[in-house]
Write a structure and sequence with these properties.
Length: 452
């Protein structure tokens, strides 16, 4: 039988994360050089390298016998644990009824976009997951490009909202932010919330990286600032290094009781409920315990050490600029100072730049600007600094915590040699690019002199 795929599906573009996978696999099998055997310097994948906390693993094993379907919004123990977790870490009073559990925040964001009417406002650069969902749902959307500091400018948001005809708009706020690693402070959030109130904008606040904030006292949830209009999403994937568990949650805005009912309908229609053993395991991850607390502190400290090294090493390359991350395990590197040299080398798009860096002799995987919803000719890239053995590095960190700047650099050199070598490769790439451009210029000059 020849199957015919629905036209709607045919029209959907491959999401960038899948494209990236295919691209890396293709490169890998095609490379004839023996040096390729080690793989590549991996700055492309956004996954926490640390072990899943032991107490979550233990609970999963203990609950393997739970074969019954769970309630659609989640098991009561889990919703109650998430409620207490939000009080403890984020200072939020959220009753368990306002919390719905889903198979990852990606799915929950998709479900929210399904039920909420209105044009979507997507600030850019952005995580590569949102746009395919918005397109899949055929929603109207507008980009909101950020400026030099890479954060939403409230007045730009106001101006855009004033142009839109919808009675309701949806802003996707990602805080802390992938790919820049930046954190919005209270004042910035308040200014955005003022515009949202004024312009009737609902906010989906994707806070999946909240607990990775290096100076955690600085993190403020939009759910606190704009409780009547914000849907906060968070989960196990980043802070608990358990993306593969597929467990996230959404906190509904205050008083959105009818909306919760509608949402339940959607979840019941699409996936019934999250796996019951996973929900039981997640309770241990959200319950307040010394073990989890220490885990959050240590893992965020390691991310910070790796992030500071990456930031300083990258920006030490003449012409390279980068965001200085406050959280997450990413930063946004800006290679636009090399635009002329890149164009001379026929590297005209950020995709081409990623391709040029992954091939021999550089073997370095980055996520180029167009996968981050930037212009195709914007030579920016996301650098994820997680290419190391997280189980080993976690143990090393516990055994010998680096304190001084020198010790931190040594820690990175010893424990994350691929991060160090990958940045050196990026430096080599741009040095060679400049050298080639200079050489070409000299050849041109001398041929001009000769012909005179
Ligand atoms: C900003 C952002 N939001 C959401 C997700 C997806 O999280 P989940 O695993 O909960 O679906 C990711 C994962 O990379 C992310 O970077």
């Amino acid at each position: 039988m020849k199957f015919v795929v629905d036209q709607q599906v045919e029209d959907i573009e491959m999401p960038e994360n899948l494209k990236l996978n295919t691209f890396l696999q293709e490169f890998h099998s095609d490379c004839p050089n023996s040096e390729c055997n080690f793989g590549f310097y991996g700055f492309a994948f956004g996954q926490s390298p640390f072990p899943v906390p032991k107490l979550i693993q233990d609970e999963l094993i203990k609950n393997a016998d739970k074969g019954a379907y769970a309630a659609v919004p989640g098991i009561p123990e889990l919703r109650s644990a998430i409620s207490k977790y939000n009080k403890h870490y984020f200072g939020m009073d959220v009753s368990p009824e306002r919390i719905y559990v889903g198979p990852g925040t990606k799915e929950l964001i998709f479900n929210l976009l399904e039920i909420l009417h209105g044009t979507v406002i997507l600030p850019t650069p952005a995580w590569l997951g949102y746009l395919p969902q918005i397109r899949f749902l055929k929603k109207n959307y507008h980009m909101l490009p950020t400026r030099a500091n890479k954060k939403i400018v409230p007045n730009d948001l106001r101006k855009l909202a004033l142009r839109l005809q919808d009675r309701q708009k949806i802003l996707i706020l990602n805080n802390p932010h992938n790919p820049t690693g930046l954190l919005y402070d209270r004042l910035e959030l308040e200014e955005i919330a003022d515009v949202c109130r004024e312009q009737n904008i609902a906010v989906i606040s994707d806070e999946i990286y909240a607990l990775t904030t290096y100076d955690f006292s600085k993190f403020v949830s939009m759910g606190k600032i704009y409780p009547e209009g914000t849907f906060v999403t968070n989960g196990l994937s980043k802070s608990h290094a358990a993306g593969g568990y597929r467990l996230g949650y959404v906190i509904f805005p205050q008083h959105a009781i009818d909306l919760r009912r509608q949402f339940k309908k959607i979840l019941a229609t699409e996936y019934t409920a999250v796996s019951t053993p996973i929900q039981h395991a997640a309770v241990a991850g959200f319950e307040i315990s010394k073990e989890m607390d220490e885990y959050f502190v240590h893992t965020r400290n390691i991310h910070q050490i790796m992030g500071e090294y990456t930031y300083h090493a990258l920006t030490a390359i003449d012409g390279v600029r980068a965001t200085k991350p406050d959280a997450t395990f990413y930063l946004l590197a800006d290679f636009n100072a090399f635009a002329t040299d890149l164009q001379k080398a026929k590297i005209n798009t950020s995709q081409k730049l990623s391709e040029s860096l992954i091939v021999h002799p550089y073997h370095t995987a980055i996520v180029g600007g167009d996968s981050l919803v930037l212009e195709r000719t914007d030579f920016s890239a996301r650098i994820a600094y997680v290419d190391y053995d997280g189980v080993k590095v976690y143990q090393e960190y516990l055994a010998n915590k680096p304190k001084s700047s020198f010790e931190k650099i040594e820690f990175v050199k010893k424990n994350a040699p691929k991060v160090v070598a990958g940045i050196d490769m990026i430096a080599d790439f741009f040095t060679n690019l400049r050298k080639d451009a200079l050489q070409e210029l000299q050849i041109k000059k001398s041929s001009m002199i000769a012909s005179n």
